[in-house]
Amino acid sequence: MLLEVIVAAIIVGLIAGGSLPRLNDLELRGSGLIFIALAAQLGLPVIGRLSREAVPAVLVTSFVLLLVALLVNKKTVPIVAMATGIFLNFAVIAANSGMPVKAEALPAAAADLVHIPISEATRLPWLGDIIIWPLPGAFSGLVSLGDLFLSAGVFMLIYDGMMYKGKRRKRRVRQGNA
C-alpha cells in the first residue's frame, strides 16, 4: 500500500507543478532511526527463521523507533498523521503480538510473520487489517486504520515537499584553514 501511495504522491506532485529535487529540502530529523526500523522490518523473515518468538518484539521495537524519529521532527500535519498511523499499528500489534487480519485475507497473509487471525480473544480488533483496499490485482488487500493515517501522512509529506517554493535552506560549507 505504501509504495502505491508514494508513486501516487509523486505523480500528483508532478502534475501539480511540483519538483522531485525539492524533496531534498525536507528537513527530516531522525532518519537514522527510520532506516534502522525499516531494516529490522525487512529482516523479519531471517529473524523468524532463527526465533519466531522474537518477531513481535522486533516489530514493536521498530515501531517505537519510527515513533521517536517522527516525534523529534517539527509537528506538521503530515508528521502528526504518520505518527498517528504508526502509533495505531504499534498499539494493535503490541496488544496481540501480531497484526490481526480478517479470515478471508489470511491465506495471503499466512506466509508472513506479522499477521494473525482475528478471534474472540483479539484486542483492539478495529485497528487490525480489516479495511478493504480496493485496487486491482496484486495491489488490492486489507489495510488498517493506522495504515490509512500513515499513508495520508506520507502522501502529504511528499506532495508538500515537491510543492514547496519558499526559501531553500542554506547548506553550510566548511572551509579548511590553509
Describe the structure.
The protein has 178 residues and is mainly alpha-helical. It has one domain (2-14, 29-161). The chain contains 7 helices and 4 strands. The chain has helices spanning 2-15, 31-42, 44-50, 55-71, 77-96, 106-109, 145-163, and strands spanning 99-101, 115-117, 131-133, 141-143. It has a two-stranded parallel ribbon with strand order 1-2. Strands 3-4 form a two-stranded antiparallel sheet. Strand 1 (99-101), helix 6 (106-109) and strand 2 (115-117) form a beta-alpha-beta unit. The longest helix is centred in the middle third of the chain and has 20 residues, at 77-96. It is globular and about 50 Å long. The termini are far apart.
Descriptors:
178 residues; mainly alpha; two-stranded parallel ribbon; two-stranded antiparallel sheet; 7 helices; globular
Short description:
The chain is mainly α and 178 residues long. The protein is built from seven helices and four strands. The protein has helices at 2-15, 31-42, 44-50, 55-71, 77-96, 106-109, 145-163; strands at 99-101, 115-117, 131-133, 141-143.
- Strands of the widest sheet, in order across it, are 1-2
End-to-end gap: 53 Å
Q: Can you give the mean pLDDT?
A: 87
Helix run count: 7
Q: How big a fraction of the residues is strand?
A: 5-15%
Assign the structural class, choosing from mainly alpha, mainly beta, alpha/beta, alpha+beta, or little secondary structure: mainly alpha
Largest sheet: 2 strands, parallel
Number of strands: 4
Order of helices and strands: HHHHHEHEEEH
